[in-house]
Design goal:
It catalyses: carboxy-S-adenosyl-L-methionine + 5-hydroxyuridine(34) in tRNA = 5-carboxymethoxyuridine(34) in tRNA + S-adenosyl-L-homocysteine + H(+). The protein is an alpha/beta fold. It has helices at about 5-10, 25-35, 40-45, 75-85, 105-115, 135-140, 155-165, 205-215, 255-265, 295, and strands spanning about 55-60, 65, 90, 95, 100, 105, 125-130, 145-150, 175, 190-195, 215-225, 235, 250-255, 270-275, 300, 300-305, 315-320. The chain has ten helices and 17 strands.
Amino acid sequence: MFDFSPFYQQIATGKLGHWLEVLPAQLAQWQAQNNDHRYSQWLKSLDNLPVVSPDNIDLTHSVTVNSTQPLTDGELKRLTHVLQGLSPWRKGPFHLYGLHVDTEWRSDWKWDRVIPHIQPLDGRTILDVGCNSGYHLWRMVGAGAKLAVGIDPMSLYLCQFEAIRQLLGGDTRAHFLPLGIEQLPALAAFDTVFSMGVLYHRRSPLDHLIQLKDQLVSGGELVLETLIIDGDINDVLVPGERYAQMRNVYFIPSIEAMKNWLTKCGFKDIKVVDVSVTTTNEQRKTEWMTSDSLSDFLDPNDASKTIEGYPAPKRAVFIATK
């Protein structure tokens, strides 16, 4: 069983305190109903991480940690074994005591595209929806966040996050909760809410936008990254059974359609700050994620199309205010 009580104690006296009316019961239910037989195995494997003393931590330019006393060959081998047992690693990369966890996604590239355009994170309370391994949570901490909370229902990602937290020395400025956004009450307590790579997985994108708005304080900032297509305000792609081999892709809007959705949901000051085609340098197979990746999802004769014939992945970052 994972112990969430340190997080409860941390938020008890702040603006998130009223979350405690429902959160402990929700997380207890998640633990009771988690039927992934690997979860307890993953948690036990965390006990086999080498005991290290982080002396040099960089969360500003990367997620990197080192110690003055290098790991022995045996400790490095044990660290590699434990972390490879938590594969696949999709979001990163991480540089841990000389070990490079080369994840499927270069999430640092996405972060570098986002960070110049958003409100400074210094001293802010932040929610990251669909946080995966928590890579961006640590970058938020590196940018000065007071508290960065990630939510994602996948137990593997919780264990990946906790492994990194332990290796960083138990930093309590970031936390991972195995929940979906639909389980959160309208907290209206976060200064910034991130939703990156989530919207197109939602059956009702407008409901998702309203759920995000409900978490923000008045005047708070939404940072949303999603797949987009070319077109005007009326253009939205509704893929068939699969898009780039993903089954759970429901709506991919044009930039103007996305702006319209945000406006309908009550956001203002809407801006597009980046548009980027996803490349096979940014998303690819590695020894830490060995199953199919982007190169397998594109038309082998025309990289501008997915294997199903849809426009290849292009992503835009939207900034908006509650």
